Amino acid sequence: MGMVYSEPACQSAYDGDLHRLHHLLRDDPGNLNVQDLDSGDTPLIAACRQGNQRVVQYLLEYGADVTLTNKKQRSCLHYASRRTFSLLDYLMIAILMPILLLGFFILQEKQRKNVALLQTLLSSEVEINAVDYKGNTALHYVCERKSHFLVPLLLERNADATIKNKEGETALDIATRLKFKKIIVMLKKTH
Protein backbone atom coordinates (compact mmCIF):
# COMPACT_ATOMS: atom_id res chain seq x y z
CA MET A 1 0.00 0.00 0.00
CA GLY A 2 1.28 3.45 -0.84
CA MET A 3 1.39 6.74 0.96
CA VAL A 4 -1.67 8.93 1.37
CA TYR A 5 -0.97 12.66 1.56
CA SER A 6 -3.16 15.50 2.77
CA GLU A 7 -1.59 17.82 0.17
CA PRO A 8 -2.84 17.17 -3.38
CA ALA A 9 0.51 18.22 -4.91
CA CYS A 10 2.35 15.65 -2.79
CA GLN A 11 -0.16 12.95 -3.68
CA SER A 12 0.06 13.76 -7.39
CA ALA A 13 3.86 13.63 -7.27
CA TYR A 14 3.79 10.33 -5.39
CA ASP A 15 1.27 8.84 -7.81
CA GLY A 16 3.24 10.06 -10.83
CA ASP A 17 0.27 12.09 -12.05
CA LEU A 18 2.20 14.74 -13.96
CA HIS A 19 -0.92 16.17 -15.60
CA ARG A 20 -2.65 16.87 -12.28
CA LEU A 21 0.57 18.15 -10.72
CA HIS A 22 1.05 20.57 -13.61
CA HIS A 23 -2.45 21.98 -13.07
CA LEU A 24 -1.92 22.28 -9.30
CA LEU A 25 1.33 24.21 -9.82
CA ARG A 26 -0.17 26.39 -12.54
CA ASP A 27 -3.13 27.29 -10.30
CA ASP A 28 -0.97 27.91 -7.22
CA PRO A 29 2.85 28.04 -7.55
CA GLY A 30 3.02 27.74 -3.75
CA ASN A 31 2.25 24.04 -4.20
CA LEU A 32 5.78 23.51 -5.53
CA ASN A 33 7.37 23.27 -2.09
CA VAL A 34 4.26 22.66 0.02
CA GLN A 35 4.87 20.30 2.93
CA ASP A 36 2.42 17.61 3.94
CA LEU A 37 1.00 18.13 7.41
CA ASP A 38 1.65 14.60 8.67
CA SER A 39 5.00 13.65 7.14
CA GLY A 40 6.43 17.00 6.14
CA ASP A 41 7.13 15.57 2.66
CA THR A 42 7.27 17.98 -0.26
CA PRO A 43 6.13 16.96 -3.76
CA LEU A 44 9.80 16.34 -4.63
CA ILE A 45 10.31 14.06 -1.64
CA ALA A 46 7.05 12.24 -2.45
CA ALA A 47 8.18 11.67 -6.05
CA CYS A 48 11.55 10.35 -4.85
CA ARG A 49 9.88 7.99 -2.36
CA GLN A 50 8.04 6.37 -5.26
CA GLY A 51 10.89 6.65 -7.76
CA ASN A 52 8.96 8.83 -10.22
CA GLN A 53 11.93 10.10 -12.20
CA ARG A 54 9.84 12.05 -14.74
CA VAL A 55 8.06 13.88 -11.93
CA VAL A 56 11.38 14.58 -10.17
CA GLN A 57 12.81 16.02 -13.40
CA TYR A 58 9.69 18.15 -13.89
CA LEU A 59 9.80 19.50 -10.32
CA LEU A 60 13.51 20.30 -10.57
CA GLU A 61 12.94 22.17 -13.85
CA TYR A 62 10.09 24.04 -12.19
CA GLY A 63 12.49 25.09 -9.40
CA ALA A 64 11.66 22.78 -6.50
CA ASP A 65 13.82 23.31 -3.40
CA VAL A 66 16.08 20.24 -3.06
CA THR A 67 17.27 21.33 0.40
CA LEU A 68 13.91 20.94 2.13
CA THR A 69 13.56 18.05 4.57
CA ASN A 70 10.57 16.30 6.09
CA LYS A 71 9.80 15.60 9.76
CA LYS A 72 12.44 12.85 9.79
CA GLN A 73 14.97 15.40 8.50
CA ARG A 74 15.23 13.41 5.27
CA SER A 75 15.71 15.15 1.94
CA CYS A 76 14.76 13.97 -1.53
CA LEU A 77 18.28 12.51 -1.85
CA HIS A 78 17.75 10.31 1.22
CA TYR A 79 14.66 8.78 -0.37
CA ALA A 80 16.28 8.29 -3.76
CA SER A 81 19.12 6.51 -1.95
CA ARG A 82 16.73 4.30 -0.01
CA ARG A 83 15.02 2.98 -3.15
CA THR A 84 15.22 -0.78 -3.20
CA PHE A 85 13.40 -3.76 -4.58
CA SER A 86 10.06 -4.70 -3.07
CA LEU A 87 9.01 -8.22 -2.19
CA LEU A 88 6.84 -8.20 -5.31
CA ASP A 89 9.86 -7.26 -7.43
CA TYR A 90 11.85 -10.17 -6.00
CA LEU A 91 8.96 -12.58 -6.59
CA MET A 92 8.60 -11.42 -10.20
CA ILE A 93 12.32 -11.78 -10.76
CA ALA A 94 12.41 -15.26 -9.20
CA ILE A 95 9.39 -16.47 -11.17
CA LEU A 96 10.50 -14.99 -14.49
CA MET A 97 14.23 -15.75 -14.23
CA PRO A 98 13.92 -19.21 -15.80
CA ILE A 99 11.71 -17.89 -18.61
CA LEU A 100 14.12 -16.36 -21.12
CA LEU A 101 15.88 -14.50 -18.33
CA LEU A 102 12.98 -12.03 -18.04
CA GLY A 103 13.68 -11.66 -14.33
CA PHE A 104 17.20 -10.52 -15.11
CA PHE A 105 15.90 -7.84 -17.46
CA ILE A 106 13.40 -6.64 -14.84
CA LEU A 107 16.25 -6.40 -12.34
CA GLN A 108 18.40 -4.47 -14.81
CA GLU A 109 15.57 -2.05 -15.62
CA LYS A 110 14.88 -1.33 -11.93
CA GLN A 111 18.58 -0.67 -11.33
CA ARG A 112 18.72 1.62 -14.38
CA LYS A 113 15.75 3.60 -13.08
CA ASN A 114 17.35 4.01 -9.65
CA VAL A 115 20.58 5.24 -11.24
CA ALA A 116 18.65 7.71 -13.45
CA LEU A 117 16.72 9.03 -10.45
CA LEU A 118 19.89 9.59 -8.43
CA GLN A 119 21.67 11.19 -11.40
CA THR A 120 18.76 13.58 -11.86
CA LEU A 121 18.97 14.69 -8.24
CA LEU A 122 22.75 14.94 -8.29
CA SER A 123 22.54 17.30 -11.26
CA SER A 124 20.80 19.79 -8.94
CA GLU A 125 22.12 21.66 -5.92
CA VAL A 126 21.12 18.86 -3.54
CA GLU A 127 23.10 18.70 -0.29
CA ILE A 128 25.15 15.53 -0.79
CA ASN A 129 26.06 15.13 2.90
CA ALA A 130 22.72 16.01 4.50
CA VAL A 131 21.98 13.88 7.56
CA ASP A 132 18.59 12.64 8.72
CA TYR A 133 17.31 12.08 12.26
CA LYS A 134 19.43 8.90 12.49
CA GLY A 135 22.53 10.76 11.36
CA ASN A 136 22.54 8.87 8.05
CA THR A 137 23.58 10.38 4.75
CA ALA A 138 22.57 9.12 1.31
CA LEU A 139 25.88 7.23 1.25
CA HIS A 140 24.92 5.37 4.43
CA TYR A 141 21.68 4.23 2.79
CA VAL A 142 23.18 3.08 -0.50
CA CYS A 143 25.78 1.09 1.43
CA GLU A 144 23.12 -0.43 3.67
CA ARG A 145 21.10 -1.50 0.64
CA LYS A 146 24.13 -2.82 -1.29
CA SER A 147 23.48 -0.41 -4.13
CA HIS A 148 26.89 -0.76 -5.72
CA PHE A 149 25.64 1.10 -8.82
CA LEU A 150 24.80 4.18 -6.74
CA VAL A 151 27.88 4.39 -4.49
CA PRO A 152 30.18 5.70 -7.27
CA LEU A 153 27.65 8.39 -8.22
CA LEU A 154 27.70 9.77 -4.68
CA LEU A 155 31.47 9.47 -4.35
CA GLU A 156 31.94 11.37 -7.64
CA ARG A 157 29.99 14.23 -6.06
CA ASN A 158 32.34 14.13 -3.04
CA ALA A 159 30.03 12.39 -0.59
CA ASP A 160 31.86 12.28 2.74
CA ALA A 161 32.46 8.64 3.65
CA THR A 162 33.76 9.61 7.11
CA ILE A 163 30.48 10.98 8.50
CA LYS A 164 29.30 8.90 11.45
CA ASN A 165 25.62 8.30 12.10
CA LYS A 166 24.08 8.19 15.59
CA GLU A 167 25.15 4.55 15.88
CA GLY A 168 28.74 5.72 15.35
CA GLU A 169 29.00 4.04 11.95
CA THR A 170 30.46 5.46 8.76
CA ALA A 171 29.35 4.20 5.35
CA LEU A 172 32.48 2.02 5.32
CA ASP A 173 31.56 0.57 8.72
CA ILE A 174 28.14 -0.40 7.37
CA ALA A 175 29.58 -2.01 4.24
CA THR A 176 32.14 -3.86 6.37
CA ARG A 177 29.53 -5.08 8.87
CA LEU A 178 27.33 -6.35 6.03
CA LYS A 179 30.33 -7.82 4.15
CA PHE A 180 29.71 -5.95 0.88
CA LYS A 181 33.19 -6.41 -0.55
CA LYS A 182 32.71 -4.44 -3.78
CA ILE A 183 31.42 -1.40 -1.87
CA ILE A 184 34.22 -1.69 0.70
CA VAL A 185 36.78 -1.46 -2.10
CA MET A 186 35.06 1.61 -3.57
CA LEU A 187 34.93 3.39 -0.21
CA LYS A 188 38.54 2.57 0.67
CA LYS A 189 39.67 4.21 -2.57
CA THR A 190 38.29 7.52 -1.29
CA HIS A 191 40.52 7.55 1.80
TrEMBL record:
Mapped ANK repeat ranges: 39-71, 134-166
InterPro entries associated with the record: Ankyrin_rpt, Ankyrin_rpt-contain_sf, ANR22
PROSITE patterns: ANK_REP_REGION (PS50297), ANK_REPEAT (PS50088)
Source taxon at top rank: Eukaryota
UniProt KW Transmembrane keyword: yes
Transmembrane segments: 87-107
Pfam families, A to Z: Ank_2
Keywords for this protein: ANK repeat, Membrane, Transmembrane, Transmembrane helix
Presence of the UniProt keyword Repeat in the record: no
Name the record gives this protein: Ankyrin repeat domain 22
UniProt gene name: ANKRD22
